[in-house]
Amino acid sequence: MTEILGLPITRPVKVGIVVADFNDLVTTRLLAGAQQALRQAGIPEENILVVQVPGAMELPRVTRRLSETGVIDGVIALGAVVQGETDHYTYVCQQSAAGLAQASLTGPIPVMFGVLMTANMDQALNRAGGKGGNKGRECAQALLQVLSVEQQLSELR
Q1: Per-residue pLDDT reduced to its tens digit, 23-78
Q2: Residue 48 belongs to what domain range?
Q3: What is the pTM of this model?
Q4: DSSP letters of 21-85?
Q5: Is 88 considered catalytic here?
Q6: For residue 90, what is the enclosing H or E element?
Q7: 58 labelled as ligand-binding?
Q8: Which of 141, 108, 100 is nearest to 18 (CA)?
Q9: According to the annotation, is 127 in a ligand binding site?
């Protein structure tokens, strides 16, 4: 039986992080968590490309464009959508999630979904380094695991 596990990545990788500026109190913490996890995994600073976009709606397009450049091995998309008093929250959540899923499924490299969608700012902050952990950090760790699995899958040929 062959078993493929998310082992530590054995080749140099370059990672893109696309981060939304909107709700930057949260997204800067998500970004810091992702960068810290990548550095702890041995990814040098020069192999991390950070791209800032206005908000969650811009994440899918820029993530897809970045994934097509051929200069990175994987992308982490980070954002925070906090529910307000209108339906705008619902549409932003649906469209950013669908767009990032499409970029991941049809694009050339893996895309990690790190967009918080919360009922209030406290929930968002709890998931950006508070008692709920740091979802940016978790996305970085997940990306490295997926890259490892994909490397092992390519070696099956």
Answers
A1: 999 999 999 999 999 999 999 999 999 999 999 999 999 999 999 999 999 999 99
A2: 24-150
A3: 0.95
A4: -TTHHHHHHHHHHHHHHHHHTT--GGGEEEEEESSGGGHHHHHHHHHTSSS-SEEEEEEEEE--S
A5: yes
A6: helix 88-106
A7: yes
A8: 100
A9: yes
Choose, from 84, 88, 90, 119, the residue flagged as catalytic. Answer: 88
CATH of the domain at 113: 3.40.50.960
The neighbouring-strand residues paired with 17 are: 50, 76
Quote the tokens at residue 141. Answer: 């760790």
71 is in an annotated binding site: no
Q: How many domains does the chain have?
A: 1
Q: What is the pLDDT of residues 124-141, one digit of tens each?
A: 999 999 999 999 999 999
57 is in an annotated binding site: yes
Could you say which DSSP state residue 140 is in?
A: H
Which residues, listed in sequence order, are joined to residue 116 by a DSSP beta bridge?
80
3-class secondary structure, 116? strand
- Domain presence at residue 156: no
